[in-house]
Amino acid sequence: MLSFKGTLSPELVTALLGVIENKMEVIEPDNKVRKRVFNVLMECLQNLYHHKASSVAEDGQVENLDGSEGVVMIAKVEQGYSVLTGNFMLGAEVDRLKSHLDRINALPPDQLREFYKETLADGKYSQVGGGGLGMIDIARKSGRKLEYGFVPYDKDSAFFSLNVNVTN
Amino acid sequence: MSALQLEGSPKTPFVNFDPETGLLELKGRSIPENSIDFYKPLIDWLDRYGRAPKPKTALHVQLEYFNTSSSKCILDLFKKLEGVRATGNEVTVLWHYEADDEDMLEAGEDYAGIINIPFKMIQIEEVDGN
Known about the structure:
The structure holds two protein chains of two kinds.
Chain A: E1 2-6, H1 10-27, H2 31-59, E2 70-77, E3 80-90, H3 94-106, H4 109-121, H5 134-142, E4 147-152, E5 157-167
Antiparallel strand pairs in A: 1-2, 2-3, 3-5, 4-5
Helix pairs in contact in A: 1-2, 2-5, 4-5
Chain B: E1 4-6, E2 14-18, E3 23-30, H1 35-49, E4 56-66, H2 68-86, E5 90-98, H3 102-114, E6 119-124
Parallel strand pairs in B: 3-4, 4-5, 5-6
Antiparallel strand pairs in B: 1-2, 2-3
């Protein structure tokens, strides 16, 4: 349905969401599924956008490695929709993200909801406001396990890929 | 104090906070990349409103989409209203959701479970995104 590789801006995020919203309107009759796909894509695109911003800020220097780029693909599959994203990230952050994803994948839906509520109410903010809710929300909207992978790239960075299925 | 009115945009909701009637509205989409920037004026407004609130305040939330960046900011709006209620005023949150959008209903229930304000869940046919 759509694939994109490059550096995201807020305007581009809006444009990509608009394209998918229009396509979904045509091909998907179930309003709930349409909204879930839109929600998952929105969170994934904003993760890509923010990740780029934060890795530069934490380094304190502008590194022009491929880390500023992300890829996203959304496809219609047999059982629904697949939202695939990939981006470079700091190698030092891999363990933390991996354990967060493993924790999410280990929880049944009702406990995932509790985890979301606890995180919502914890009073902690990340720089952009979400405070760790993004992946939990993606998993709730998906209803399936998050499929992910990390591939070491060089001594400082790794490539992170995430596949989110939304079934109807 | 004056009303807070903001037009809706593809990523930010329509806002109409009226200090004369105690009627507060948040409608449309809340999916900005940086929600803290967007919500700060709303939270500041509620801070001021809370010093001399109407005896009855009703916040209508009618969102088609909101992102997780907005989630904690929306919680902060509710917390400000919790403060208004704690000083002896009547406060209600009216959470509108589309009939087949159980995710939005759950989101409202999640807030209602955290915040000490009565929530009314209102089922509607279709959200007008403004």
